[in-house]
Amino acid sequence: MLLLLMLQRIHVDKKQKKRLDVINKKLGSLRQQLAGSREQADDLDELKDLENQIAKLEAEAAEIKASK
Fold first, then answer.
1. Is the whole-model pTM more than 0.70?
2. In this structure, are residues 64 and 13 in contact, taking their beta carbons and an 8 Å threshold?
3. How many CB atoms lie within 10 A of CB 37?
4. Residue 50 burial (CB < 10 Å; 0-12/13-18/19+)?
5. CA-CA distance, 43 to 19, in Å (whole number)?
6. pLDDT tens digits for range 10-66
7. How far apart are CA 59 and CA 68, in angstroms?
8. N or C: which end of the chain has fewer CB within 10 A?
9. Contacts for 30 with CB less than 8 Å, ≥ 6 apart
10. CB 13: neighbour CB atoms within 10 A?
11. Distance between CA atoms of 17 and 31, rounded to whole angstroms?
12. Where are the domains of the chain?
């Protein structure tokens, strides 16, 4: 039983690590888009959308890190 619990925990940790990797890649891409969008500053809706996406991903990453 203990072994099963340990294996489940390892599986969850791997899934969390993979999700964090995906989030970090997306954040990098979104931050680059945001920087470019700020330089042009012609579409405020796009700026707000990018900022919202970044905030959501950062919150999800923080939640995953806190659950470890």
1. yes
2. no
3. 19
4. buried
5. 30
6. 566 888 999 999 999 999 999 999 999 888 878 889 999 999 999 999 999 999 888
7. 15
8. N
9. 50, 53, 54, 57
10. 11
11. 21
12. 14-67
Task: Fill in the amino acid letter for 20.
Answer: L
Three-state secondary-structure class, residue 41: coil
Rounded CA separation 16/2 (Å): 21
Best CA proximity match to 30, nearest among 7, 63, 8, 52: 52
**Tokens at 35, concatenated:** 């920087």
Give the other-Cβ count within 10 Å of 39's Cβ: 8
Angle between helices 2-40 and 44-67 (to 10 degrees): 160
User: How far, in Å, CA of 19 to CA of 64, rounded?
Assistant: 9
The backbone torsions φ and ψ at residue 38, rounded to the nearest 5 degrees and listed phi first, read -70, -35
